[in-house]
Here is the input.
Amino acid sequence: MMRLPFIARGGAIADLAAALDGARRSRGGLVLITGEPGTGKTRLAEEVVARADGFRVFWTWCTPAGAGGALRPWSSLVRELAAADASMARAVQQSPHLAELVTAAANSDTTHADPETARWRLSLDLAGMLATSAASQPMLVVIDDLHEADPSSLQLLAEMAPSLRPWR
Ligand SMILES: Nc1ncnc2c1ncn2[C@@H]1O[C@H](COP(=O)(O)OP(=O)(O)OP(=O)(O)O)[C@@H](O)[C@H]1O
Ligand SMILES: [Mg+2]
Here is the structure.
């Protein structure tokens, strides 16, 4: 399909550039891009990635009906982080919650006696891992097709969001 030059719409790209600038100055955050199907959410995210000079960029996405396992967007993010960096790989080895997350895609029916506590611990370990990564280099994580996310992935995102504030 022919790819047309990007047409900047309203202030969206400026808002997102401001969010990148904030992150460079240790003012991290969560930005939601919403819109009807085919209105340019993915394209806008691609344009932000193209402007994210100096950032370590991760692109992950949600799949329909939980394909790829529960928490797929997060497990793929942690797997990529661990593959990119030895200290991140160690963080995964040292956390049973992160270790389970990266293998969960192959074993998505893992059950916990107390799933709430397990997810909370996972969110703490994940926050620690992302904070360590963001301390060495500003970080941009794109989660595409969030409307397909499983409830646990959304809950994890909601739990993580407040801790992003002081990060790059
Ligand atoms: N601002 C824009 N300028 C030029 N082309 C655009 C723009 N926004 C979107 N497009 C083009 O329109 C098409 C649909 O955009 P895109 O895939 O980003 O939509 P989407 O909102 O992510 O769709 P979906 O809801 O299906 O995921 C793509 O070919 C994209 O390159
Ligand atoms: Mg899209």
